Amino acid sequence: MAYSEDLADQIREVFFQKEVGFSEKKMFSGICFMVDDKMCCGTHFDKKIGEDVILCRIGEDAYEPALEKPGCIPMEFTGKPMKGFVFVTKEAFADLPQLTQWVQLCLDYNPKAKKSKK
Q: pTM of the prediction?
């Protein structure tokens, strides 16, 4: 199943409201939003749970506290969790203010994140 274009539009709206420059790349069976040429967050359809999720790059310091929140699960593609990355289910972003909080967590980490090698 393809990613949710509606969810991608909602994330775009948060970036526009915050006046954050971003670009987009198709990645992880969805759209990845890049800020300062670094992966920030994205959309993904998780086949395990059967729903659209937000892929959030939040860093290792915020990782464990985030997992304590309802609707936040480890990001796993190969069966092994990726530290510093989480999936957030609809339970945790039921409205725009909740979505904005998750995107802001990603934006807070973005200046510390390393750029991918080209």
A: 0.91
